[in-house]
Design goal:
It is globular, with a radius of gyration of 22 Å. Helices cover 74% and strands 5% of the residues. It has helices at residues 26-53, 60-88, 96-129, 134-137, 140-166, 183-187, 195-228, 233-262, 270-293, 297-315; strands spanning 2-5, 8-11, 13-16, 93-95, 175-176. By secondary structure, it is mainly alpha-helical. The protein has ten helices and five strands. The longest helix is centred in the middle third of the chain and has 34 residues, at 96-129. The strands form two sheets. The protein has a three-stranded mixed β-sheet with strand order 4-3-5. A two-stranded antiparallel ribbon has the order 1-2. β1 and β2 form a beta hairpin. α1 (26-53) runs antiparallel to α2 (60-88).
């Protein structure tokens, strides 16, 4: 599966090891990941549909949440179908172009979601700290610009890192000890100096992670200050309920990313990398709609009404 081009040989396909070192777990893992994927699709599509149906949810918060759900659908669909495939087939291969395409879209979703969560934190800051000016401050035009900015930044970051990977040579081993084209897994099969790519990835990751985390933390510092000044216990409980959902999603997402990329390489096992990648590529997209919808009465009432309508139409 190699192609000689002059003095340089480049790999045209990679073999994904996946979880093949645990043959007795292949079927159980397939069933678990398939279930998670179905729940992810239903949950995130449900959030998007529910927002469209219920006019009460035509607010900036749910506008951002629907885009977060869209990102989770895309993100899960980048990795999970291939993961399911290599769990049931013997030939676990992915083409070079397919690998780079998977990495590009996966990376773009990570950076975009990173800033989408920061934008959602800013939205909560404006809603809680300046409630009277909320509808003016968070105008439809500003919301659209914020969302467009997150997609553009995510795409630009991913394009830059992907380009740095494409420029490397892959001529020794074509076996990737992973279930997908994750950055460190791709670098492990390169036979050229990865220093430039690593520097580019490090700079972009630090700038993005620091920027999104600092803006999120700044928003919540002001939110906490405003909460402590609230005289009404009812308002305090409602505010805490809303913020808890968002903070839970942020903690899971950023915590997993930091665990995966901030632990020194020598101390990371391949299994740890795979499990951590499963967490933020497969599990987190499923958890987001559950985190945001289970505590919201408007969402639950809309879902109940939709189910009743479907059942009624089937019975007639």
């Amino acid at each position: 599966m190699t192609l000689n081009m002059g003095n340089q040989s480049s790999v045209t396909a990679f073999v994904l090891v996946g979880f093949s070192e645990y043959p007795h777990l292949q079927l159980p893992l397939f069933l678990v990941f398939l279930t998670i994927y179905v729940v992810t699709m239903v949950g995130n599509l449900g959030i998007i549909v529910v927002r469209k149906i219920n006019s009460k949810l035509h607010t900036p918060m749910y506008f951002f949440l629907s885009h977060l759900s869209f990102l989770d659908i895309c993100y899960s669909s980048v990795f999970t179908p291939k993961l399911l495939e290599i769990l049931v087939v013997e030939e676990r291969t992915i083409s070079f172009r397919g690998c780079m395409t998977q990495f590009f879209f996966g990376c773009a979703c990570v950076f975009t979601e990173m800033f989408m969560l920061a934008v959602m934190a800013y939205d909560r800051f404006v809603a809680i700290c300046n409630p009277l000016l909320y509808t003016v401050a968070m105008s439809p035009k500003l919301c659209a610009l914020l969302v467009a900015g997150t997609y553009m930044w995510g795409g630009l970051c991913s394009l830059t890192i992907t380009y740095s990977l494409v420029q490397l040579s892959y001529c020794e081993s074509n076996i990737i000890n992973h279930f997908g084209c994750e950055y460190s897994a791709i670098l492990s099969v390169s036979c050229s100096d990865p220093s430039f790519s690593q520097m580019i990835c490090l700079i972009i990751s630090i700038v993005s992670e620091a920027g999104s985390l600092l803006s999120t933390l700044a928003s919540y510092v002001f939110i906490v200050v405003s909460i402590t000044r609230m005289p009404s216990k009812g308002g305090l409980q409602k505010t805490l309920s809303t913020c808890t959902s968002h903070l839970t999603a942020i903690s899971i997402f950023h915590g997993t990313i930091l665990l995966l990329y901030c632990v020194p390489s020598s101390k990371r096992s391949q299994l740890l990398i795979k499990v951590a990648t499963v967490l933020y590529t497969v599990l987190v997209p499923m958890l987001n709609p559950l985190i945001y919808s289970l505590r919201n009465k408007d969402v639950k009432n809309t879902v109940r009404g939709l189910i009743r309508t479907i059942l009624h139409s089937q019975s007639t």
